[in-house]
Amino acid sequence: MFLQSSKTIVTVSLNVTNVLRNLSTTSTSCNSVLQTKKLLHKLQSRFCPKNYFYTSSIKNGRYGHRLVKLWEQPEYTTKPLKVYRTGGRLPTSRFNSDDKVPGRKWTSKIGGGLSREWYWIDTKRMTLDEVNNGVIYQERVLKVKEDDNRSGHIALVAGPLKQRWILATETMKPGQLITNCATELTGGMEFKDGDAYPIGIIPIGTVICSLEFRPGKGAQISRSAGSYCTVMRKQENNTIVQMPSKREIMVNSNCVAVIGRVSNVDHQNEKWGSPQKLREYGLRPKSGRNNIKRDGRFGKKIKVKHMVVIGDKPLRQPHS
Amino acid sequence: MSQGVCALRSLCKPNYGGVQCVYSGHMQQRRAKSQKKVQKVLYTKKMKQRIPINWRDVNYNPAQIPSAWKPDNWDEKRKIDYKREEEMAKYIPGYKKKVPLEMQEDYQKEPAFFVGEETEISGSLKQSLFLTKSVMPVTGLPRQVMDFVDSHPIDMEDCSQDERVKQVLRHALLFDIDPRTLEIDQQAQPAKHDAYKIYSKPDRYVPLIMKELIRLCNIKLCQAGGYFNDRMSLEQLTSNITFKRSCDSFNNDLLPGIDPNWKIFMSSSPAIQVLSKRPLQPFATTAEVESSANIPLPNLYPILPVINLKQTHIYKDTMDTGLYDGFPRPNLHTIVMFNLHKLGTSELYAKMNQALFTSLYSRAMSVHGEAKVLETPLTGQCIASDGQNFQFMCMQLNTTDLSNDSGIKNMVWIDEEEPSELLDAVEDRPPSSTMYSECSHAVWWTPEYIDNYNPHVFKLFKALWLNGVAK
């Protein structure tokens, strides 16, 4: 709302003045002013632009750390691209110029940091057309590398006609062959680490990662270092998967998933020993109360967990 | 909000022991009315219309969308107004107007994979061997070249052969000052830590070393007889070829949309190209050429040889050797290339193979005109260096028929002890023949200022250069 306030205010003020002029000519002044004050809210709501909605993801969370100018390079490349720091500021347009410049501060405590390189990662191991056609092809891993912009490692992979970067799994090494298979073969299938299948083919109980939430959209779930999902059960056209947060979701069985865990499993055991490490990652120094020892995570209280209900019969509560 | 009110009401409700059933029925009616009101408040019809159906698929976060930073006139600037370009070309002399793709001079309907001077062959030597249908039969250089290693030694009265070469290295790397830096240094006195700036960069010292070594070899060439007049060295001679290559060994029915028949345009313009009146003798005998049918091409699976090559409609569909008809020295002797941009070993071998193949294939097609197995195979040599590491390659063109992966193949020799390991290596490795490890003022413990000099490298260089000369 705040971003587009300037436009709305202009329109409102003009209309109000028009209304006032009309009213002044016809009726008395005292009543008219009172009426206009009441009308202001209605005017604002009326002239508010349509198709303008916040979702929850905009208002919450930190975004806008860094910028990659992808419109300058529409074609896919394996070369690293430049990364620009935004300082937590959103773009605005200046008067009489078409260029976009950093404007209002959107997220605080962001700034500086070491220079990075951005590698264009292909999250679609198989596209939707390839899944529908039942394609099988193999790729060779050429290089496994750390990445600045994510916790897991990345791997350079060469297919029959294309070279691309993908997310590396735990046991991926250069020189290895990985398969992308969309058909259920008659013989015994080996679900090796790093292979990609549609989730309908993958048997129950296997560990998977970099899962698609919608078919053909690209991997969204469990892409960070060491994370993994498990296939729980299957319905007609859907499969039910346990996410790394132990929550279960139901996805279409055409969604592509990779077998195994994401690489760099020891990422959670890393320690940022000094505040200088924070500055290197682009986070500015903090201040405030340091009294956050309440045993629950991030200074939360410990809450009593509700017991599991079996067969509509509540178990004995701990307090009573 | 109203749900919370209902909860409060339920708490406040009195307990009438026996009359409970009557009262609960009354409350249920009231609760139902309130719930209907809540649904109306949360999602009105207008709100439902405004929410798009694909709201889950679209990302509304302006910070995560990089196109929010995109300038407004980006697409308008990229549009080309061809009528305006023609007007600009009328009034501005020397204006290069932009022409639509179909109106350009070298436009061809059938697209071709472009392998030029600046293309990076990502599959390196393995890929270029597969494209040119060539095979490495033996380790090391051919026997015909290796016979010349110890012949024609340069032994003067003052200094031996190795000292002559060391003089060349010292001249190029220690005592040669780049004149491009002198103009900058005149303006202001440079600091002490900027002293490295006056030493020459690779684009100056690499050609200097190579041309000096060629001069040393040409001394022997003059002494041998009339061989010096037979030769001619040309710089930046371009040669272009187009050929059709088809792959039999790739069979994957489950992967649609891949055509194993390719049209390839290849061009090269090496730094120095030495031509001669007499052709070089073939490196392999006829029996060895026929036995090349048994040797398989290098295994590229699962990669296809045209990986990362761009398809273009703009190329020349003719064969060019770069020479006019009836040129007095038509035969190729050696190609010299400079590695100025720090290419890897196998990448540089691929570039050498590309340069040799273009020059030999264009000569063969200008003579025969059809793709077939050659009765008299053509040969050529190539030298490339970084100023420190030297790479040698010999090639023999046996066939121009590239429509199969079987049959008689072309042959390539490189100066490596284990070439099969170099092909299969994941990481890049240094070449086998390095002339010296270090040559600088920092090497104070040696009076020559050269550390770990290898005399065998210049012998190989001289053997390639004097190939075909009487002993």
From TrEMBL, chain A:
InterPro entries from the UniProt entry: NA-bd_OB-fold (IPR012340), Rib_uL2_dom2 (IPR014722), Ribosomal_uL2 (IPR002171), Ribosomal_uL2_C (IPR022669), Ribosomal_uL2_RNA-bd_dom (IPR022666), Translation_prot_SH3-like_sf (IPR008991)
The keyword Transmembrane helix is assigned to this record: no
Residue intervals of the Large ribosomal subunit protein uL2 RNA-binding domain: 103-180
SMART domains associated with the record: Ribosomal_L2, Ribosomal_L2_C
Domain of life (superkingdom): Eukaryota
Domain Large ribosomal subunit protein uL2 C-terminal intervals: 191-314
Protein name: Uncharacterized protein
Organism: Ciona savignyi
From TrEMBL, chain B:
Sections of the chain in a coiled coil: none
Localization (cell): Mitochondrion
Keywords, sorted A to Z: Mitochondrion, Ribonucleoprotein, Ribosomal protein, Transit peptide
GO cellular component terms given for this protein: mitochondrion; ribonucleoprotein complex; ribosome
GO BP terms, alphabetized: translation
Alphabetized Pfam families for the sequence: PDCD9
This protein's name: Large ribosomal subunit protein mL37
